[in-house]
Design brief:
115 residues, mainly beta, seven-stranded mixed sheet, four-stranded antiparallel sheet
Length: 115
């Protein structure tokens, strides 16, 4: 299983970024997909999650109304649209695929929100 994460970078407060995570080596449509993040000196936390067919999503309270998770099962890709970014959103963002006991992680992409 491999993930190609992209879209991270440096953005000013109030700006937007869209993260992408293209998965290969698994039957993508069977997996629930999530984005996690880990800020310096903090534990990894769940940011957003989407069911295998995209029928349901859930978000951390800190990002509700600003971030949107979506997926394209034909492309095997999950996205995280991040708007109104704040300095506290600075972290390494990881995609995660989970189906039963199967649990796979990407290597992460760095998002830095700073003026």
């Amino acid at each position: 299983v491999q993930f190609a994460e992209s879209g991270g970078g440096l953005v000013q407060p109030g700006g937007s970024l869209r993260l992408s995570c293209a998965a290969s080596g698994l039957t993508f449509s069977r997996y629930g997909m999530s984005w996690y993040r880990q800020a310096p000196g903090k534990e990894r936390e769940l940011v957003a999650t989407i069911t295998s067919v995209g029928s349901s999503t859930d978000y951390a309270d800190s990002v509700k109304g600003r971030f949107t998770i979506s997926r394209d099962n034909d492309k095997g890709t999950v996205y995280l649209q991040m708007n109104i970014l704040k300095p506290e959103d600075t972290a390494v963002y990881y995609c995660n695929a989970r189906w039963g006991f199967r649990d796979y992680w990407g290597k992460g992409t760095l998002v830095t929100v700073s003026s």
